[in-house]
Amino acid sequence: MTSILRSLTAFTVLALAFAAQPALAAGSHKVAVHVDQNDKKVMNMALNNIVNLKAYYQARGEEVEIELVAYGPGLHMLREDSSPVKARIAKMDLEIEHLTFSACGNTQAKMSKKSGKPVKLISEARVTPSGVARLIDLQEQGYAYVRP
């Protein structure tokens, strides 16, 4: 009898622990897209990946949450003065729900220091302290990782 009670207790503890874990809603996906190159082709490939993911899951009646994280030379993608894709980002930001553009604060600070003036980002970008750390955080939260 004691072993049965122990087994039931262990099962109950495991069931409660499992129930306490955050779960994705059925048909819900999370994707982190990584850009670290100042290359228009790579930037457009990342944006194409986002558009294609959104269309794929939408056709299946499923939701997708996407966050693009840019750092290092890839920050040019989100810079007001040098982004070759800023018009496309502005359009996508209006058309695609659950899409976030994150800019590395470390890279922004280094670029600002090097240029001797503040580096301004496009309005769609939000600053995260560290792009690399943000990607790690997203993966720990269950985001799939994509690097075009």
Descriptive notes:
By secondary structure, this protein is an alpha/beta fold. 47% of the residues lie in helices and 20% in strands. The chain has 5 helices and 5 strands. The longest helix has 20 residues, at 40-59.
Which features characterize this protein?
Hypothetical Protein Ychn, Chain: A; disordered N terminus; five-stranded parallel β-sheet; 5 strands; 5 helices; globular; 148 residues; 47% helix; alpha/beta
What is this structure's SSE topology?
Blueprint: H1 2-20, E1 28-35, H2 40-59, E2 63-70, H3 86-95, E3 99-104, H4 105-115, E4 125-128, H5 131-140, E5 144-146
Parallel strand pairs: 1-2, 1-5, 2-3, 3-4
Which regions are unreliable across 5 or more consecutive residues at pLDDT < 50?
Answer: 1-24
* Helix segment tally: 5
> What string gives the helices and strands in order?
HEHEHEHEHE
| CATH topology grouping | Hypothetical Protein Ychn, Chain: A
* Overall shape: globular
Helix content: 40-55%
Structure class: alpha/beta
**CATH homology superfamily name:** DsrEFH-like
Query: Rounded to an integer, what's the Rg over CA atoms?
Result: 20 Å
CATH class: Alpha Beta
Task: Estimate what percentage of residues fall within beta strands.
Answer: 15-25%
Spatial order of the strands in the main sheet? 4-3-2-1-5
Q: Specify the biggest β-sheet.
A: 5 strands, parallel
